[in-house]
Design brief:
The chain is an alpha+beta fold. The protein has a single domain (2-276), classed as Lipoprotein localisation LolA/LolB/LppX (outer membrane lipoprotein receptor (LolB), chain A). 19% of the residues lie in helices and 36% in strands. The chain has helices spanning 2-13, 31-38, 43-48, 51-66, 174-180, 273-276; strands spanning 69-80, 86-96, 105-115, 121-129, 133-138, 143-148, 181-184, 196-203, 213-221, 227-234, 238-249, 267-271. Helix 4 (51-66) packs across helix 5. The protein is globular.
């Protein structure tokens, strides 16, 4: 469960967390992609994956299944290599995994912003996913937008890898990860987080149209098997780094955390799936 949350964070980092005002349209999966998503992982693919990398993935999967909820401090940075622009945010994240009664949910609350190496200022931005709707609240401009992610009457899993608006590489079976990515590992370098295992994921060609990033690096705690740092590179030459600190697992999270009320006097808008003709990626 935790692993899925971390990957979701990376998806958002490559989308509107960097400041985009509206979500770009994502093409629906092709019939060939649907077939590829549902067929079992190729045993040969698993056999040719680095055994050490597979072990890290399996430990990550087991830790995700063990922990149903978490909160953590988040340090986030995105660098646009084409323009040279950069943005740093700090805040807190909350995640609650899927159960028999409830879908998975998360909340991201940013408190500060620093742009292009300038001063750090207070700027609150909230993102809340309640299992169906993603709500974005920009407090400085008093704007709130709700994006429908899951169709009415469906129990979809929008954070599942290769489906819907969120291309998620983790939080599912290790065999699913190696089906979508070339996975490798190496020894930790001196300037990298201590006590971590390293993973590198490169998107396989057959899934390049569905997955926003081309490469993702992850550092996973050797003891708890939880990710503490991620770096992704996307198709638009953006490099996104997310660091997770003070991770608390199996915490009690009230349902109100994942619902943002509509403040009086704010500009409000709502985008349903039928308005756009298909899923949107924030």
């Amino acid at each position: 469960m935790l692993s899925k949350f971390v990957a979701a964070m990376m998806s958002y980092a490559m989308g509107f967390l960097a400041g985009a005002e509206a979500p770009p349209e994502q093409q629906p999966p092709t019939a060939e992609a649907d077939q590829a998503e549902t067929r079992p992982a190729d045993p040969q693919t698993q056999q040719t994956t680095d055994p050490e990398a597979m072990k890290i993935l399996e430990n990550l999967e087991a830790a995700g299944a063990e922990h149903q909820a978490l909160r953590a401090e988040l340090k986030y940075e995105v660098i646009d290599r084409l323009t040279g622009d950069s943005e740093e945010r700090e805040g807190k994240v909350f995640f609650r995994g899927q159960s028999d009664e409830e879908p998975e949910k998360f909340r991201i609350s940013f408190r500060t912003l620093r742009q292009a190496g300038g001063p750090r200022i207070a700027e609150r931005v909230d993102y809340a996913f309640d299992g169906k709707w993603l709500t974005v609240a920009r407090h400085r401009t008093k704007q709130m937008t709700r994006y429908q992610v899951v169709p009415d009457g469906e129990q979809a899993r929008p954070m599942e890898l290769g489906r819907g608006p969120f291309p998620i590489p983790f939080g599912q079976r290790a065999e699913d990860v190696v089906r979508h990515f070339h996975v490798s590992t190496r020894d930790r370098k001196e300037d990298e987080p201590e006590g971590t295992d390293y993973l590198k994921l490169v998107t396989r060609d057959e899934y390049a149209e569905q997955i926003a990033f081309t490469q993702l690096e992850m550092w996973v705690c050797e003891q708890r098997h939880l990710p503490v740092k991620l770096i992704s590179r996307d198709k638009n030459e953006r490099i996104t780094t997310a660091g997770f600190e003070e991770i608390e697992t199996d915490v009690e999270l009230d349902d109100d955390i994942f619902h943002l009320p509509r403040p009086a006097g704010w500009q409000y808008s709502e985008e349903r799936l039928e308005q756009s003709g298909g899923p949107q990626m924030p």
